[in-house]
Every structure is written in C-alpha cells, then in structure tokens.
Amino acid sequence: VQLVESGGGSVQAGDSLKLSCAVSGSQVSNNAMAWYRQGPGKERELVAVVTSGGSIYYQDSVKGRFTISRENAKNTLSLQMNNLKVEDTAMYYCAFGADYSDFKYWGQGTQVTVSS
C-alpha cells in the first residue's frame, strides 16, 4: 500500500486548504484512514479519523473547521481545512490500516504553513 499526500501550502490565517491522500494497492472504502500532524517542536497528533465502518472523529481543536472524507471512486482521502489558524501549521500525514488502532501505512507528509 502506498500513500501520497498533496495539497499543502503556505496561506494566511482564515484561508482554506484541501489536502488529498491518494491510495494505491488497496481500497479506501473498507479500511480505516486518518490525518495526523506534527508541528514544529511538537509530537505527532491525530487530527481526524474515519473508521472502516464510516464513523468519524475529530480532534477538538479542529471540530467545525476541518472535514475528513473518503472519496471511494477516486480511492482517496481528503481533509478540507477552513478558517485555518497559525497553530494549524504542521506537516500533515495520511495514515491507512485495517483498524483505526493500528495504522500500518503512512504517507510522506505535506506541509501546511499558516501565517498571521
């Protein structure tokens, strides 16, 4: 399984970005997927997850601003990020696995930088 993220960039606070994670070697529809991020000097943290059954969970700091979605026809995972804040600055990683407690496959990451 290979994951390739795209869509990162440098934006101003309040702007929007949409990240995509293209999956090859397996199907997104039957597996758990998630977005994680790691900011400068911080540990990696979970941003949002969609379970194999379709349940969705968000980190509290992104609720109401970020939307995770699986696009089965394109075999991709997306993260729509609105009203971005400086503290959202991080490298964003896509993760894939049979269960949300065990992500075995990771992408290389895409950088998101938000300036004030």
In short:
The chain has 116 residues and is mainly β.
Overview of the structural elements:
The protein has 116 residues and is mainly β. The protein is built from no helices and eleven strands. Strands 2, 4, 5, 6, 9, 10 and 11 form a seven-stranded mixed sheet that branches. A four-stranded antiparallel sheet has the order 1-3-8-7, with no helix packed on it.
List the defining traits of the structure above:
mainly beta; 116 residues; 4-stranded antiparallel sheet; 53% strand
Beta-strand residue percentage: over 45%
What is the radius of gyration? 13 Å
Largest sheet: 7 strands, mixed
The overall strand count is 11
Helical proportion, percent range: under 10%
Residue stretches low in confidence (pLDDT < 50, at least 5 long) are none
Order of secondary-structure elements: EEEEEEEEEEE
Class computed from helices, strands and strand pairing:
mainly beta
Query: What kind of assembly state do the chains in view correspond to?
Result: single chain
Mean pLDDT: 96
Total helix count? 0
Identify the overall geometry: globular
Distance between the termini: 37 Å
Please specify the SSE layout and strand pairing.
Elements: E1 2-6, E2 9-12, E3 17-24, E4 32-38, E5 45-50, E6 56-58, E7 66-71, E8 76-81, E9 90-97, E10 105-106, E11 110-115
Parallel strand pairs: 2-11
Antiparallel strand pairs: 1-3, 3-8, 4-5, 4-9, 5-6, 7-8, 9-10, 9-11
